[in-house]
Amino acid sequence: MSGKNRKKLSTELIHTGDGQFCKELAKTASVPETFPVYLTSVFAFDDVASVDAVYERTSGSYLYSRMANPNADAVSRILAAAEGSEGAKALVFASGMAAITTAVLSFVKTGDHILASSVLYGGVYDYFANELPRFGVEVTFADLAREDAAHLIRPNTKLIYTETIGNPLMEVPDLADLSKAARARGPLLFVDNTFATPVIAKPLELGADIALYSATKYLGGHSDVTLGAVTGRGPLIDAIKRFQTLYGATAGPADCWLLARSLRTLELRVKKHSENALRVARFLESHPKVERVFYPGLPASPFHERAKRQFTDGGFGGMLSADIRGGEKEASALIEALETIRFVPSLAGTATTVSYPVKTSHRSYSAEALKKAGIAKGQLRFSIGLEDADNIIGELSRALDRI
Ligand SMILES: *Cc1c(COP(=O)(O)O)cnc(C)c1O
Q1: Every domain of the chain and the residues it spans
Q2: Is 121 known to be catalytic?
Q3: Residue in 92, 97, 119, 346 to alter for ligand 1 test, most ligand atoms within 8 A of Cβ
Q4: pTM value?
Q5: CATH 1.10.357.10 corresponds to the domain 53-263
Q6: Domain 266-402 sits in CATH 3.30.428.10
Q7: What is the distance between the alpha carbons of residues 243 and 238, in angstroms, rounded to a whole number?
């Protein structure tokens, strides 16, 4: 058993059952019932002409996973379909912030202006307030859920940026109105649809140009994956794609696979989150130790009618905030009195969790900005999970009794 061409162990271990096995698999009569994970950073070609064809865009073959990977494409297809919008395309990113920063950078340059909601996810606010000005992009903040945006648009305004359900005050801007103002004057309308998901709201259908997601939240839904996504019409998504490849904000194939798996149950999960959250909101609203509840599903919310008009039949989401009577001392005591509801500075998992905006997500806000926004020292934000609603309410009730 010798001979120069006999493959040695290391060679066999490297080449046997490698990617070439896919060619054999492609000839079999069955396909996997679920889409497999393509854990490959790069793709092999049979000849030079095939590579030429990819670069010259006459073939759509995969080449390098930073540019495109089957798992990223598979999950993008699901996300685009979920928007229910004609011609919608999607891209997945390594995180929500990667999706947002890359999408914004794709459309602004020095000298441009962005009009943004004054209450935003903390990381996005930080990026707008402290990072973009370094590149000569000016951002002004306004209460886009209450103020008329039209007179705030300048000749150099390239983007209007808002959230379907604002964080943490659960404010609901009128997306159709914002879209009308944007269309009349030129800027693109970007809407962070993380809290709503396509189960509750479809920003593209309401006139937004780009919907943005932290897929780390409800789209993933199990607190086990960090990803982001953007959806929009083809040409806009193609423009963002160039920057995604350039900046390298690509999502890994295994994470994309997890997200695809999670999306199968998105509608079920979000509807149950909404149902549970409405019950918890009603309970908290009637509790003497709670000063105010922020939830668009409550008729007392100033955004209830607009949300009813704008949202689909998925309810009002799983996120709500509550001002605990007293302030910081009482809010901290409540967090400590809870049993299974843990202090988790994120949201949208299967378990009910509590967060403290002034200490976590909105830490980058100055005292003045917090006051202006209406984010109180005693304000807690709850992410209502998929447990039995009576159990969630029972636990909150016991904890409130103890403070
Ligand atoms: C979490 C979050 C983000 C940022 O997403 P990451 O996945 O953490 O990068 C953006 N917007 C909203 C509304 C969020 O909740």
Answers
A1: 9-52, 53-263, 266-402
A2: yes
A3: 97
A4: 0.95
A5: no
A6: no
A7: 9
